Structure formats: structure tokens, C-alpha cells
Amino acid sequence: MSTKLNLQDFIEKVKRENPNEPQFHQAVHEVAEILIPYINEHPQYLENKVLERLVEPERVIQFKVTWEDDNGEIQINKGYRIQMNSCIGPYKGGLRFHPSVNLGILKFLAFEQVFKNSLTTLPMGGGKGGSNFDPKGKSDREIMRFCKAFMEELYKHIDENTDVPAGDIGVGGREIGYLFGHYKKLRSKFTGVLTGKGLGFGGSLIRPEATGYGLLYFVECMLKEKNESIVGKTVSISGSGNVSLYAAEKCIELGAKVLTLSDSSGYIYDPEGIDAEKLKTVFKIKLEDYARISEYIQYYPHATFVAGKRPWEVKCDIALPNACENELDLSDAQKLHANGCILVAEGANMPSTPEAVHFFLDNGILYGLGKAANAGGVATSGLEMSQNSLRLNWTREEVDQRLKRIMQDIHEQCKQYGGSIHNNINYYKGANIAGFVKVADALIAQGF
Ligand code: NDP
Q1: Domains, the chain
Q2: Rounded to an integer, what distance in angstroms lies between the CA atom of residue 446 and that of residue 440?
């Protein structure tokens, strides 16, 4: 008979064995507080030490990236790939290029990815990687040289059946193109080793849109459950990157009114709503000019730019934190609630602090956590892998339909395992348990 797990002891041990990794501790705590009571009631998970095994990455690769800037100066960055768990398929998860990247951040993201990928119902394990390289202000050639230098090492550890990276913060279509081109050169083969590729060389339709679109499909399911509709609802969105732009596009298409977008310098508030025309301007600002979101008010002077702040003080029905981890804290959650917000769904990974999450749950705000709500991106990456293997391209409608079905399926799994809290589905509990069960059963079946 195994000893039952105790949350406090478990977390203390994780902290001791993984020092100075606060984001990883936070992600493990979030999962463990839900899973430990469940595991204690299911002896097969307890006896096989499944949770203890899941917090340990299968492999951590760290390497040096040396490249030359436009002034001919040598630059040195750190590169990483965390191969977290491959029980149900090849490692799958994005690459992040941002100065804040370190081992702890990537371990948190890789750990989350294991559960998220399991929820998609597709055969994908979990991984994550990246570098502390800062793409901001770099020339196109510098980005290319960095990507090549990064791939010089990464290519030894990845292929289409082992580990298939994608994009994340700071890694979009351009970077994936350079990374893919160099992998092809180094290996002399054309394979589906990365997802998020250009359409002309193995990419899938809808992949760039998928996280944002999938988020809104999930929000629609959440609202439908409460006999509500998104039409006419006001929406605050943070970020103005890949996830945010396509989430905004889908909101507008579905008849909601988008009030805000942001970046790390502040947020813009357009009381009349950012409509489809205005969103085209935002796409130009961010994806063609690589400029700041504050540029928006040059085009639309009736809007305001609020420097150095986050958009959660704006009155809205729905909040979509889509920028980065821990961008929404308890005081933000309280403001949203006081202003009548009914639903929060996370396009970003772990954007709400633990205190904010518990505030949502305790105050009847519908809360769709990132693991479930933003899984559409990796799900469509899975669809890109399938198309690459089949050497086929599905139409836009086909991919979109599959994405929608996957998000509905994730919603059903949350419902099945989550039960209810304050008359809402407990997505927090449901997503964590549903994601866990499939991986845990595979882990046990494969021995140790
Ligand atoms: P992008 O790099 O395209 O955009 C990130 C956005 O967030 C930018 O507007 C950026 O502003 C802002 N941001 C980044 N850091 C901060 C910060 N510390 N404070 C305020 N704003 C910040 O990334 P993505 O849109 O791809 O990713 C956003 C989030 O979604 C991340 O949490 C990512 O892990 C998650 N995610 C992404 C998926 C995808 O398919 N891309 C899939 C699932 C989750 P600035 O330009 O000023 O830095």
C-alpha cells in the first residue's frame, strides 16, 4: 500500500530539486492541487508514482548559440530544448525567443504542454524550447543568422518522429522558415520537422490563425453551456501578437466588439470597437512594420493609448489574456469582476496568477484555463504533421472544421472530468484531470 501524496510535501520536494525555477513551481502547483486528491483515490497512479515521474523531464538539452550581428560583432546566447514527455507521441511544443527565457520558464511551458497535447486527442508528447535571444530591433539578416546558428545544434535532437518544434513568443512564420531551411540543409532531407511552416513548403492552412480561432471556439462552447452568445459582447484582449490578432479577428467575425489590444509598452482602448478594417491596420503595424501598438492612435485618434498598463481596468464582458505568463493578478481579477466581466479565457500560457485563478473560481466567473482554451494551436500543428505524413493539403474549411471539432471535444472532456463550481463547469479541474489520465495510463502501460 503506497503512502498517499501530500500537496505541501510534494511541492517542497519539487522546489528543492528544481531550485530558482518559480514559474515551473507555479505550473506544478496548479496541476498538483487538482491531481493529488484524484491520484490518492486511484491506487494505480499512486503506486506507479505517475506524478513524480511527470514532473521530471525525459531530457534537457542546453547549448551555446554563437552568431554575428550586422556590425560584425560576435554575440552569444543560450539555447534550450526540453523534451518533457513522449508517452503518447513525439515531443511537440513551441520555441520561444525572448530575453526572459531560462530553464525554469521552458520547463513550466513544457510541463503544461504535456497535458494540453493530451487534451487535443492527437498523438503528441510535450516539449518546449527557445533562447534568451531578443528579436526586437534586430535586422532580418540578424534574425536569419541567429536562426541558423540555433539550428546548428538543435538539428541533432529533432526529426519528424522524435521532436517537432513550432513557434511561440518571438518565433513566427519568418523564423520557422529560416529554421526549416537550415535543418533541410544540414540533414539533406525535406521532412515535417517543424510546424507553422509557410504554405508553399508543407505548412497547413489555418495554422497561423489556429490558437486565436480555437480560443474563440472554446469561448463559444463555454457561453453555449450557459445559454449565452458572444454576439454583442465586449471583449478586452491583451497582446498584439499571433494569438491576439487572430483571436480579435474571430471575435469580430462572430459579432463581438473588441475594445483593447496591448504590448509590453501599454494598451490601446478603442471605445467604438476595433472592427475588421481597423484590425487590418493593426496587422500592418505589427506584422509588416514590426512597430509598437501605440501606433494605432496615429491612425485612429479617437482611441487612447495607456502607457505602462494592462487592459484589465477596462469594462468588458469577456477578457482574453493572450500575451504572457502572470500578466493578470488578483487586483486585475477583482477589477474585471467589479466591472461585470463574466468570462475569462486564456490564449496565453498561465497568464493568470494562482490568486487570480482562485478568485475567478470562487466568484462565479467562467474560467477557461490556457491548457484547454489555447490548445487549438498545437492541435492544428498536429494536423500539419498529419498532412506532411500523408503528403496532402487539406482545404481551409477542412482544417477549420477539424479545429472546431477538437475544441468542442476538449470542452466535453473538461465537462466530463470537471464537475461544477458555483454553477459553472470547473474547467480548471476538468482540463487537468482529463489531460493527465491519458498520459498516466500510457506511462504505466510502457513500464519504467
Ligand atoms: P507573439 O510573440 O506573437 O506575441 C506576444 C505578445 O505579447 C506581443 O504583443 C508582446 O508584446 C506581448 N508580450 C510579451 N511579453 C510581454 C510582457 N512581459 N508584458 C506585456 N506584454 C508582453 O507571441 P504569441 O502570440 O505566439 O504568444 C502569446 C502567448 O500565447 C504566449 O503565452 C504563448 O506561450 C501562448 N501560446 C501561443 C501559441 C501559438 O500558437 N503561437 C499556442 C498556445 C499558446 P511585445 O511585442 O512588446 O513584447
Answers
A1: 59-190 (3.40.50.10860), 210-373 (3.40.50.720)
A2: 10
